Amino acid sequence: MRSVALDLGVKKIAYCEVSAGEVVDRRMVNSLSSLEPTLGPGAKPARVAIEACREAWFVHATLTAWGNEVLVVDTTRSRKLGIGQHRRKNDRIDAEVMARAVESGGIPMAHVLSPHRQELRRQLSVRRTLVETRSQYVTTMRGLACALGARLPSCDTEQFSAKMRKAPLNPDVRTAIEPLLALLSPLQEQLAMVEQGLEELCALEPVVAQLRTVPGVGPIVAAQFVSVIDEAKRFRTAHEVESYLGLVPSEDTTGGKRRLGAITKHGNTYLRALLVQSAWSMFRQPGRTDPLQKWALAVAERRGKRIAIVALARRLAGVLWAMWRDDTVYDAELAMRSGVRGLRNAAQSIEFRAQALERAAAKLRQHRARSAKITEVTSSN
């Protein structure tokens, strides 16, 4: 097969083809469709390398449909190919470096999500943007009120719009926040629609309900975990998952002395943040009956809360992965007593699984009822 690489730029695509160590074709095109005569169904099949980026999924699907073998390059390891070496990095050079690596067989591959998980990731991205926009609006309105010597009543972000409509605000404050308040209601309605769509997608993913049996893990955390990991069995150990998500300490071992630093923070930033939020939720739960929570509290006493929370988030990632791999639900005692390895040998009863999944379903029904009520109040106002 031909050895080809594409560097996907914002406005241009750099094309390079290598044969027997020599560049035989090089060009810049405006769009992927311009390459159909060269890489399309009527052309000789090629092995094509592209770097992982936002449009990589679409390009991968298109080139594969044209009959090519597509190699998605892991950008975290692309320097191994020589990309950016000697501070020389542009689209033409990158395309040539990747094309030579295709021919020599040295491409560090990135995982390509299945189509359903790609759609799940897209919907989660839309929801994240809407939630962050809503939070920004609310924060800005509270700041405007403070600047005028007033304080807006405290409430959940979801209920902010409805509560502000009924709150006795002075005219200056209401005039200042009204433009943003007017945008908040339709934004809340769109968010409710997106969350409904996410629920429908998650209904096709039984593993989401299983992962939600872990205390502190809600539907968004479980769905994001599934959309990032995609296939549990592509990882051999829990440590590989934790490293993939950037939750393991950085390491500098030279001269026989091992030095551990802060976590690497590689991988999906959003999922890592969600796992930390779940860790805080578990850490703060009243009762202190969960063994993982007790373990994190003990770590906090020795090394402080922040380190304990990151350690708990790392352990949660491993437990979630093991539950998915073994098709099981959360057993607190087993998770703490045996760790991730013990989950493989767990022979949980059907009754136990049913009870755990029913608890997760009950939480989902409560969430739906709350969302419906908020949407109804928002629409009426």
What labels would you give this structure?
381 residues; globular; 58% helix; 12% strand; 14 helices; Nucleotidyltransferase, domain 5; alpha/beta
Topology:
Layout: E1 2-8, E2 13-19, E3 22-29, H1 36-39, E4 46-51, H2 56-65, E5 69-73, H3 91-104, H4 115-147, H5 160-166, H6 171-203, H7 206-211, H8 219-229, H9 238-244, E6 249-254, E7 257-263, H10 269-284, H11 291-303, H12 305-326, H13 332-344, H14 350-380
Parallel strand pairs: 1-4, 4-5
Antiparallel strand pairs: 1-2, 2-3, 6-7
Helix pairs in contact: 4-6, 4-8, 6-14, 8-10, 9-12, 10-12, 11-12, 12-13
Note down, in words, how this protein is organized.
It is a single chain. This protein has 381 residues and is of the alpha/beta class. The protein has 3 domains: 2-104, Nucleotidyltransferase, domain 5; 115-203; 207-252 and 260-364, no CATH class. The protein contains 14 helices and 7 strands. It has helices at residues 36-39, 56-65, 91-104, 115-147, 160-166, 171-203, 206-211, 219-229, 238-244, 269-284, 291-303, 305-326, 332-344, 350-380, and strands at 2-8, 13-19, 22-29, 46-51, 69-73, 249-254, 257-263. Strands 3-2-1-4-5 form a 5-stranded mixed beta sheet. Strands 6-7 form a two-stranded antiparallel sheet. It is globular and about 75 Å long. The model is unreliable at 338-350 (pLDDT under 50).
